[in-house]
C-alpha cells in the first residue's frame, strides 16, 4: 500500500516539470502553462523552496488547486506523519493533538500566575453564589494530552506548566468546595477500556462524557447518571476537527448552546444554569435527567460570566471549561455581586474602607510594588 502512495507522490512531483515542458514545446499558445511558472533546473530539484513555488503556482492557476493541497496534506500525514499547520500536532501512531498555539506560548511563570489568579476569583464567585442561597459547581475538562500522554510524542506540551495545572495545585492547598476534578474519573474510564478521546478528534467521546457526568452527579449527591455503556440517541457522533484542520478542510460551525432544556421525565431535582463551551455538547445528554430544568449559556456567545448568569432563576450554577479555555474565562465579580442582590445575601456585611487611612505592611501592599 505504501509503495502505491509513494508512486503517486513521485508522479505529483514530476507533473509540474512535464506540464512546463509540454507548454514550452507548444509555445504556450493555449495558455496551458501560464507566465510565471517556476522554470525547472537540475540545481533546483532538491531545493524545497522550488517546490513551494510550484505549489503556489498551482494554487493560483488551477481550479483543482485546493483538492491538490488536501491530497498533499493527506499524503504528508499518512506517509510521513508530517503536517505544515501549527494548529495540529501529530503524535505517535498518527494520534492528533491541538498544536502548540495560544496557551502553550505562555511562560511557566505567567501560566502559574494566571492559574492562581483565576483560583482566587473562583473562590470569590463561590462565596457570592453561596451567599445568595445557591450552589456553585465548577469543573474543567482535561485535554487530550492529559488523558493520553503516551501518544503525544516529542512535539507536545505535556511537560509544560499550564494554568490548568496551576489551578489544580492551588485547589489541593485551598480546596474550592464546588470544584469537581474530572481527570481521575476519565483516566479510570480509560483503564476500563473506554475511548475517552478518539485518535483524530478534538472533543471527548460520548463515553468519556458519560464517565465525567457520573463523576459530577455522584460527587454532589444529585443522582446517578445512565450507564456509560448506553449512549443516548441525542449524543453527537465523534468529531474529526483536528483531522480536517490537518488536511486543510473547513471545520463545520458548531451549533449554539443556548436556550432551555430538561430531562425526558419530570424530576424533583434542582433547576440549574450551565455555563460552558463546546464540551457541553457531549456532556448535556448525560446530566439533563438529574434536573427539572436547565438554562444553558454558551461561553463563545456569552463571553462574560456575570450578570446574566446570576440573574437567571435557578437553584444551582455550573461553570464548565476546557483546560485551555480557562485562560479565556472572564469572571465579572462586580456584576455577579450586583445581580445577586447584596441586600438579600446571607451573612454578608458591606462596609466601606478608606484606603487613604490604610497602612502598608509590605513593599507590595495596596496593589503597588516597590522594586
Structure description:
This protein is an alpha/beta fold. It contains 12 helices and 10 strands. Helix 2 packs antiparallel against helix 3, helix 4 runs parallel beside helix 12 and helix 7 packs across helix 8. The protein is elongated.
Keywords:
alpha/beta; two-stranded antiparallel sheet; 371 residues; 10 strands
Rounded mean pLDDT score: 78
Helix-strand sequence: HHHEEHEHHEHHHEEHEEHEEH
Bin the strand percentage: 5-15%
- Rg for CA atoms: 27 Å
The biggest sheet, with number of strands, parallel, antiparallel or mixed sense and barrel status, is:
6 strands, mixed
Structural class: alpha/beta
Low-confidence stretches: 24-34, 224-229, 364-371
Strand order of the largest sheet: 4-3-9-6-7-5
Note the overall shape. elongated
Helix fraction? Answer: 25-40%
Per DSSP, the total helix count is: 12
Number of strands: 10
How far the N terminus sits from the C terminus, by CA atoms, comes to: 65 Å
Please provide a brief summary of the model.
This protein has 371 residues and is α/β, with parallel strands linked by helices. It is built from twelve helices and ten strands. Helix 2 packs antiparallel against helix 3 (65-80).
Structural topology:
Blueprint: H1 2-25, H2 48-61, H3 65-80, E1 88-90, E2 96-98, H4 108-131, E3 135-141, H5 144-147, H6 163-173, E4 179-181, H7 183-191, H8 206-219, H9 241-247, E5 259-261, E6 271-276, H10 280-283, E7 293-298, E8 304-305, H11 307-311, E9 316-322, E10 330-331, H12 333-340
Helix pairs in contact: 2-3, 4-6, 4-12, 7-8
Amino acid at each position: 500500500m505504501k509503495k502505491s502512495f509513494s508512486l503517486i507522490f513521485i508522479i505529483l512531483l514530476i507533473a509540474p516539470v512535464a506540464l512546463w515542458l509540454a507548454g514550452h514545446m507548444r509555445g504556450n499558445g493555449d495558455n496551458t502553462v501560464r507566465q510565471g511558472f517556476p522554470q525547472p533546473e537540475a540545481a533546483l530539484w532538491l531545493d524545497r523552496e522550488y517546490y513551494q513555488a510550484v505549489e503556489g503556482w498551482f494554487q493560483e492557476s488551477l481550479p483543482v488547486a485546493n483538492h491538490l493541497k488536501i491530497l498533499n496534506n493527506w499524503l504528508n500525514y499518512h506517509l510521513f506523519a508530517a503536517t505544515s499547520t501549527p494548529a495540529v500536532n501529530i503524535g505517535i501512531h498518527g494520534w492528533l493533538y491541538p498544536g502548540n498555539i495560544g496557551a502553550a506560548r505562555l511562560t511557566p511563570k505567567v501560566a502559574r500566575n494566571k492559574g492562581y489568579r483565576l483560583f482566587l476569583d473562583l473562590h470569590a464567585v463561590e462565596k457570592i453564589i453561596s451567599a445568595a442561597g445557591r450552589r456553585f459547581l465548577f469543573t474543567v475538562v482535561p485535554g487530550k494530552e492529559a488523558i493520553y500522554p503516551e501518544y503525544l510524542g516529542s512535539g507536545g506540551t505535556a511537560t509544560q506548566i499550564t494554568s490548568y495545572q496551576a489551578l489544580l495545585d492551588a485547589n489541593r492547598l485551598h480546596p474550592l468546595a464546588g470544584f469537581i476534578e474530572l481527570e481521575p474519573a476519565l483516566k479510570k474510564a480509560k483503564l476500563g477500556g473506554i475511548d475517552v478521546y478518539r485518535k483524530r478528534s478534538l472533543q471527548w467521546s460520548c463515553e468519556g462524557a458519560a464517565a465525567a457526568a457520573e463523576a459530577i452527579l455522584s460527587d454532589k449527591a444529585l443522582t446517578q447518571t445512565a450507564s456509560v455503556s448506553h449512549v443516548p440517541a441525542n449524543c453527537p457522533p465523534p468529531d474529526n476537527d483536528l483531522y480536517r484542520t490537518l488536511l486543510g478542510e473547513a471545520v463545520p460551525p458548531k451549533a449554539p448552546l443556548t436556550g432551555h432544556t430538561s430531562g425526558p421525565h419530570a424530576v424533583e431535582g434542582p433547576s440549574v444554569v450551565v455555563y460552558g463551551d463546546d464540551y457541553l455538547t457531549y456532556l448535556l445528554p448525560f446530566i439533563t435527567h438529574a434536573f427539572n430544568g436547565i438554562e444553558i449559556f454558551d461561553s463563545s456567545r456569552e463571553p462574560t460570566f456575570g450578570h446574566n448568569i446570576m440573574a437567571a432563576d435557578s437553584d444551582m450554577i455550573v461553570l464548565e471549561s476546557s483546560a485551555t479555555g480557562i485562560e479565556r474565562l472572564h469572571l465579572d465579580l462586580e456584576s455577579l455581586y450586583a445581580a445577586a442582590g447584596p441586600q438579600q445575601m446571607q451573612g454578608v456585611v458591606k462596609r466601606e474602607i478608606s484606603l487613604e487611612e490604610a497602612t502598608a505592611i509590605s513593599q507590595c501592599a495596596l496593589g503597588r510594588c516597590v522594586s
